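[09:14] KT: can someone run the structure on this one? pasting the chain below
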Amino acid sequence: MDVQLFVDLQDRLDEASTLFESIKTAVKDLNKTCRLTSAKLAKAHAVPQAQTSEITDSVSPQFAEIKQKISELRSLIQPVTFYKYNDMWSYAMQTACALTVFTVYLKHGRLASPEDIEEYLGPKVNVSNGEVTEFVITIEEYLHGVVSLFGELSRLAVNAVIVGDVGRPLEISRFASELYSGFQLLNLKNDMLRRRFDSIKYDIKKIEEVQYDLRVRGLTS
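[09:31] RB: done, structure tokens below
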């Protein structure tokens, strides 16, 4: 019997193991940068709306680093192995999308488009949902990022009042309602994304309660 077959098989196993560890390291570095970016963006909850531009400008270096970390990850992945290893970085990509969506809202007061995601992070959002021919951000990862925005908006509505920006919750409420209406057009399956979408109503309720309290106290018309 030719034992070379088993030698070759072991080589393949070693290559797969090396790739796995390389991806693991790349994702760890990406998560680390995302945590730093999140910490800096959190400061937006402690300042009036007029000062948020300073916060979003301060995270530009971190987004450049996130883009670089994703580029390093992309270099490890071939299209044929994309879905084989996707679970390893999917959560990190959801986090990166959430950071981008929140930043775009703070800067422009609108929802981040797939084009914005590509500009900030590098890979395209796979809106066609077709065959993967390159490293992409899946539709689910993008939508998880959008869902995360509702939690940020509910916090922002409360904290805006704390810093004396009583007009901001109305703006947040209008945007959140429009975004929620858009989400209701999606026929989501009963998975994690669906369960997260179901929790949005609690964030909407929290924003509405802030609006109600302000009006009861005569602080808004």
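[09:33] KT: thanks! The longest helix spans residues 4-41.
[09:34] RB: yep, looked fine to me
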